[in-house]
Amino acid sequence: MRAFALIPVLLLAACGDGAKEGTAISITGADNSFSAEMGSRDGTIAIKAPGFSGAIDLPKIQLDAGNFDIDGVRLPEGSKIRNLNVVDRGEKEAVEVRFSSPVAPGAVLEHFRGRLAGKGYTLTTNGAALTGTTDEGKSFRLSSRGGAGGSESVLSIGG
């Protein structure tokens, strides 16, 4: 199960900096047979798998633009990831990233449109969203709206 491969990423990332705010992370395996969740408040990772259930107490972490990229394209500088959700639905995996950015919604969309088009993505602007497909033919959607001091965005791939 590919979701198990993400546990080391959670554990390495959890060796964080004692951030005031944290990133909530969840990973769900096919048929909900596996799940791992890390809360944004205290960093505790709850793991449920066949034959095992437990929790690991780690410091909370704050993922930002330097911790995440899509085909080499990072989030806009200064962005902070609020939630990272990974779901393995067998042949249909999905990733959803919710992040805040110090730039306006239009700048977030332009940041990704320009960089991902060169990576083989087919994208169309639909109001406050970019929609289309990745270079592997998976669905892609990025929506962005005004937020405190910048924008709040949701990026979804697959599903």
SSE layout and pairings?
Elements: H1 7-13, E1 24-28, E2 35-38, E3 45-49, E4 52-56, E5 69-70, E6 73-74, E7 80-89, E8 92-101, H2 105-117, E9 122-126, E10 129-133, E11 139-147, E12 150-158
Parallel strand pairs: 1-7
Antiparallel strand pairs: 1-2, 2-3, 3-4, 5-6, 7-8, 8-12, 9-10, 10-11, 11-12
Organism: Sphingomonas guangdongensis
Protein name: Lipoprotein
Region (Disordered): 134-159
Overview of this structure, please?
The protein has 159 residues and is mainly beta. It folds into 2 domains: 1-61, no CATH class; 63-159, 2-Layer Sandwich (TATA-Binding Protein), CATH 3.30.310. The chain has 2 helices and 12 strands. The chain has helices spanning 7-13, 105-117; strands at residues 24-28, 35-38, 45-49, 52-56, 69-70, 73-74, 80-89, 92-101, 122-126, 129-133, 139-147, 150-158. Strand 10 (129-133) and strand 11 (139-147) form a beta hairpin. It is globular, with a radius of gyration of 16 Å. The two termini are 17 Å apart. It comes from Sphingomonas guangdongensis.
